[in-house]
Amino acid sequence: MSGDEDIAALLPWSGPMRLVGDVLEHDGERTLCAIDPRRSQLFMSPDGSLPAWLALEYMAQCAGVHGALLRRASARAARLPGEALLLGTRRLTLHVDRFDAGRRLIARAQDQRTSRDLVSVDCAILQDEGGAPLVEARIAIHVPGIERGAFAAGTPRTEDEGAGARGRSGAEEPTA
Q1: Bridge-partner residues for 139, per DSSP?
Q2: How would residue 106 be classed by pLDDT, with cut points 50, 70 and 90?
Q3: What is the dihedral of CA 175, 80, 84, 58, to 10 degrees?
Q4: Are 151 and 67 in contact (CB under 8 A)?
Q5: HSE-up of 156 (CA within 13 Å, CB side)?
Q6: Which of 75, 130, 153, 155 has its CA 20 to 30 A from that of 48?
Q7: How far, in Å, CA of 50 to CA of 63, rounded?
Q8: pLDDT value of residue 68
Q9: What is the pLDDT of residues 32-55, one digit of tens each?
C-alpha cells in the first residue's frame, strides 16, 4: 500500500498534520510507515531540524494506521470502533535530540495488548529498518467499546489474562 490517498482512507488527519507517508509493511503483529520529515514543516526549526518529541505524533499516527488496517482485515470489522484517543506514553526514550529533515525515518507500531478499553502499543522511530531505534515508547490508547483482544492478531492476548482479572484499580480480583 502506498500513496497519500491510501493513508487518507486510514487516518482522519489531512494536510500538514498528516505526517506519515507510505505503509512499508503490515502484518497482524506490526506496521511500518515511512516518515518524510519534510512533511513536518510546521515543526521545523530554522536550521531545518525537527524536535525528537515529534516522534510521539509519528508513532501515534503509525499506530492509527496499524489499527485501521487490522479493522479492515478483520471479519469482526463492524464491531471494532474506528475512533481512538491517545492517552499517554510510558517508557519514552529519546536517543536523539533532533531529526534531520533530509533523512527518511520509519515509524513502527507493534505488539498491541488490549485490556478493557485500553490498547497498549510498542512503538519506535528508526533511521533504517532493522537499525537501532532513535526514539522508543509504549503508547496507551483509549478505544471506546473495544472487545477484549480485538486488536491482537490470532489468539487474543490481553494484559489481564491469567490467574485472576485485574480491576480498574489494578488490584488482583478473584475469578469465578
Answers
A1: 89, 121
A2: very high
A3: 110
A4: yes
A5: 15
A6: 130
A7: 21
A8: 82
A9: 999 988 888 899 999 999 999 999
